[in-house]
Amino acid sequence: MAIILTAACGEPNDDPAIPEHVETIEPSDDEEQESSDEVSLNMDIIIGNHVITAKMEDNAAARDLLSRLPLEITFNDFNNTTEKIFYPKPALTLNGVPRGCAPVPGDITIYAPWGNVAIFCKEWSHSDDLIKIGHIDGDCINHLSVDGDIKVTFKVSEK
Questions:
Q1: Can you tell me the distance from the alpha carbon of 137 to that of 8, in angstroms, rounded to the nearest whole number?
Q2: What does the angle CA 112 – CA 113 – CA 114 come to, to the nearest 5 degrees?
Q3: Cα separation of 46 and 105, whole Å?
Q4: Scanning 14, 50, 108, 119, which has the fewest C-beta atoms within 10 Å of its C-beta?
Q5: DSSP helix/strand/coil, 67
Q6: Which among 92, 101, 13, 109 has a CA at the least distance from the CA of 52?
């Protein structure tokens, strides 16, 4: 089943009460239905009044993170705004998830040895220990490319 989802940078959200909703993706009659419980692979990252939409990968680690939403966390600044990181408790599942990537701005990854989730704000070199679980497109990453720690909320996107 091919599903094309796009990431978008939302305008400031005047209504901070974004509804919590899990979108069911229904296959057409000519597609084989794998599960009626499939959820959206889009995630909203809410920073103040800004809503950033990320497209998550279709892998066990990304689905584990999505299953925990909504989630309020503090991203810690790491390596001079190269990336923003947090440590999910318990660690996300890595079973069967392909390793290795050269992150670009907007990539959402897990650093396997430490178990932290990182959103890259700058390019970085390839690492076999990085696992890509999603991506933020466009200039939306600028909302995270700031000095210091940032409080954010993750929610399943309705987009």
A1: 7
A2: 95
A3: 18
A4: 14
A5: helix
A6: 13
* Residues 6 or more apart in contact with residue 35 via CB below 8 angstroms: none
Is residue 105 classed exposed, middle or buried when 0-12, 13-18 and 19+ CB atoms within 10 A define those classes? buried
Q: State the Cα–Cα distance between residues 18 and 29, nearest whole angstrom.
A: 32
pLDDT in tens, the chain (159 residues): 333 333 445 444 444 433 344 333 333 343 333 343 555 799 999 999 999 999 999 999 999 999 999 999 999 999 888 899 999 999 999 999 999 999 999 999 999 999 999 999 999 999 999 999 999 977 788 888 888 899 999 999 886
Which bin fits 133, alpha (ψ -120 to 50), beta or left (φ > 0)? alpha
Cβ contact 80:115 at 8 Å: no
Instruction: Give me the amino acid identity at 105.
Output: P
111-to-26, 58, 135 alpha-carbon distances in Å: 33, 18, 15
